[in-house]
Design brief:
20 helices; alpha/beta; 3 domains; six-stranded mixed sheet; disordered C terminus; 44% helix; Rossmann fold; single chain; TIM Barrel; 503 residues; elongated
Length: 503
């Protein structure tokens, strides 16, 4: 099915099966095998009859590839003191486990260092920080524990906060595993914050409860008349046929389908990253379910962290898709916007003109810009032109042929919120320009959003404490018929001041 690694439970193997040989031979699996220690059973039943030392040594004997110490999970319903206690005990157990995992018998295993604390993110951060020194003494993978009960309640935003608390504290180069998080709705948002590995028994647990996983949510099998999937299971059977099967057979088929869907989600995420469209994928995913919307909004709190670790341009990426007002936060949009704004004060030309982006065709656009400047009696050699457009922002004319400005598709309703964002960006740009600059802003009378933009700018300029005169150029742009030969006409021009000071 495409999975190159599996996870099983060392505690259950020890208690119910009693194997003491190579777990790969027992499971007849030659790929990577990770063994959990029994912490889920503690979460579910309160305690188990095995010690941390016993289960760590047992994992060495069965030659697992990735082993986990016996951590103490933190349910989201516990108090702060209880969460702190579970995080502290987990940390203490990790310290004691070092004596075992660094022995010759165990040192070939990649050992997981769990971080507990639950929804108390300050506890998560504190013990993530404490764990860093331990990590380099014998561990290979960090793991964030106890999201399972939150995921069952669809509290995705709290899981995102927990992930950030851990990921932003531990070294960025260190792998991070997220226990019990295998639902397609959550996976992309966890990946966005830097989660590298997942595990989940949801595929089989849901199947036993006749629940059908899809990439946009979970269905009861009895609710479905058609399968929204073309995996080998769904291609061969109808929902009715699965419901009529014996229970064991139905579980087998449903669990296979659930695994296919999880695998499809992982592949979709990888492909989106490769194409450079991961942010667009997150935007789309955000609107599939209220829980994903909450996860996306939680992610927005950590944009600076995302920008710090995101490459906004690389070879082979596809055009930027602007699909909602959230596209303004796309790293491939926001990082270039910031770079341009940070350098705008370095402009050494005395005449600055802001002109609307009215044509995708760059030849037509450059001809349009030239016609506007000619109408204004401005010479290009002495004039710096910035082109403006919603979400994209303010772009120097010479960068119009550079990614992402050369490759973007716009499919967003231009709302007041989007206009407000652009107005603020232009206003900020004006304030950063040299005080003795001649500044003009052109706009097309045919475009209602530009009229709203100019109105907002005039209000902002008039209310500002910084004195700056700006000439507003109203154009009849002939947008529907412009072919590079017809000329936009200036209807009117007027100066507006940032404020009026009387002495």
């Amino acid at each position: 099915m495409g999975f190159k690694g599996i996870i099983t439970n060392a505690y259950l193997l020890k208690k119910n099966v009693g194997i003491y040989d190579d777990v790969h031979e027992y499971l007849k699996f030659n790929g990577v095998i990770m063994t959990d220690s029994g912490a889920y059973q503690i979460l579910k039943y309160g305690k188990i009859d095995v010690s941390n030392e016993e289960i760590v040594k047992y994992q060495c004997k069965i030659k697992t590839d990735i082993g986990v110490i016996l951590d103490i999970p933190t349910p989201y319903t516990v108090t702060y003191d209880e969460a702190f206690s579970s995080a502290l005990e987990t940390y203490n157990r990790a310290q004691k486990a070092l004596e075992i995992i660094t022995t010759n018998q165990c040192q070939e295993i990649l050992w997981v260092l769990p971080i507990q604390g639950g929804v108390y993110v300050d506890v998560v951060k504190e013990f993530a920080q404490k764990s860093v020194e331990l990590f380099y003494n014998g561990f290979s993978i960090f793991a964030l524990g106890s999201p399972t009960t939150l995921l069952e309640q669809y509290l995705f935003d709290k899981v995102i906060d927990m992930i950030f608390a851990a990921r932003s504290t531990i070294p960025f180069s260190a792998p991070l595993h997220l226990f019990g998080a295998g639902h397609p709705l959550l996976i992309p948002f966890a990946v966005a914050l830097g989660v590298d590995l997942f595990d989940s028994a949801s595929y089989i647990l849901y199947a036993k409860d006749d629940r059908y996983i899809s990439r946009k949510g979970t269905y009861r099998l009895s609710e479905l008349e058609y399968f929204p999937c073309s995996c080998p299971i769904c291609s061969k059977h109808s929902p009715k046929e699965l419901l009529e099967m014996p229970k064991d057979e139905r579980i087998k088929h449903l669990s296979k389908h659930n695994l296919y869907v999880i695998r499809e989600e992982v592949n979709e995420v990888k492909q989106a990253i490769k194409e450079g469209r991961f942010w667009e994928y997150l935007e789309i995913k955000a609107y599939l379910h209220p829980a994903t919307k909450s996860a996306f909004k939680a992610l927005l709190k950590y944009l600076e962290y995302l920008y710090k670790h995101t490459s906004y341009s690389k070879p082979g990426v596809k055009a930027v898709l602007l699909i909602s007002h959230y596209s303004v936060y796309n790293p491939r949009v926001q990082i270039p916007r910031r770079k341009i704004l940070s350098k705008i004060h370095m402009c050494n030309k005395s005449n600055i003109v802001f002109i609307p982006y009215v044509y995708k065709d760059k030849i037509l656009l450059n001809n349009f810009i030239g016609s506007v400047l000619k109408q204004m009696n401005e010479e290009l050699d002495f004039t710096k032109v910035y082109v403006y457009y919603p979400i994209i922002g303010v772009v120097p004319q010479e960068l119009l042929f550079v990614f992402p400005y050369s490759q973007f598709e716009f499919g967003v309703e231009i709302t007041d919120e989007i206009i407000e964002d652009l107005a603020y960006l232009i206003f900020e740009s004006i304030l950063l320009l040299k005080k003795d600059s001649f500044i003009a802003i052109a706009w097309c009378v045919e475009a209602p959003w530009q009229q709203k933009l100019i109105s907002k700018l005039i209000r902002s300029l008039s209310a500002s404490k910084v004195q700056r005169s700006v000439k507003i150029i109203t154009l009849q742009c002939n947008l529907g018929s412009y072919n590079g030969k017809s000329v936009p006409n200036i209807i009117s021009s007027a100066f507006t001041n940032c404020n009026f000071i009387t002495k």
